[in-house]
Structures are given as C-alpha cells and as structure tokens.
C-alpha cells in the first residue's frame, strides 16, 4: 500500500497521535529543516507542554519525536511511503 500523503503530512498525522493541538507551522517547519538541533529542542519543549493526558506522566518530548521518526522510517522501509 502506498499513501498519497507527503512526508510532512505523515509527520503531522503521527505527532497528532501524541499531542492535543496542531504544532505551529514555525515550530514544525523548523524541525523538518533542522540543521543544528535547536529547532528539535523547540519542538521537544512544545510537545511536553501539549502532550495528551494519557501519556503525560510517562512519555518524554524526545521520545515522541523519536517515535514519529521511527514510524516514518518503518513505513518507508516497508514501501508504504516513497519520499525519504
């Protein structure tokens, strides 16, 4: 199965599983184009402040980011998405 969604859409959908609201475009775009880790740190702190209540007492911001990245990597390796 191949999705018609692009990488950004898939990442946004994946993050929505863990947070209560849409990540602001400036934070999301910064993360997707991060070169030095600063934008990822901003996203990490944003996630912590907006995490779903079901996971807030045990999940971490960086754990959510890594989970989303792993979901995408696994889908790519399985051929479900074409864009690396």
List descriptors.
single chain; 84 residues; mainly alpha; 0% strand; globular
Q: Identify low-pLDDT runs.
A: none
Largest sheet: none
What structural class is derived from the secondary structure elements? mainly alpha
Tell me the number of strands. Answer: 0
Number of helices: 4
Give me the Rg, rounded. 13 Å
List the secondary-structure elements in sequence, H or E: HHHH
- Termini separation comes to 16 Å
Helix content: 55-70%
Mean of residue pLDDT?
95
Fraction in beta strands: under 5%
The general outline is globular
Précis, in short:
With 84 residues, the protein is mainly α.
Give an account of the 3D structure.
The chain is mostly helical. It has a domain at 22-77. Helices cover 57% and strands 0% of the residues. Helix 3 crosses helix 4 (61-77). The protein is globular, with a radius of gyration of 13 Å. It starts with 6 loop residues before the first helix and ends in a 7-residue tail after the last helix. The model has no long low-confidence stretch (mean pLDDT 95).
């Amino acid at each position: 199965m191949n999705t018609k969604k692009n990488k950004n859409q898939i990442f946004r959908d994946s993050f929505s599983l863990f947070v209560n609201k849409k990540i602001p475009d400036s934070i999301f775009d910064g993360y997707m184009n991060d070169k030095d880790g600063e934008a990822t740190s901003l996203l990490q702190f944003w996630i912590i402040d907006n995490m779903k209540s079901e996971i807030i007492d045990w999940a971490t911001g960086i754990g959510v980011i890594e989970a989303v990245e792993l979901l995408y990597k696994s889908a790519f390796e399985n051929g479900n998405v074409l864009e690396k």
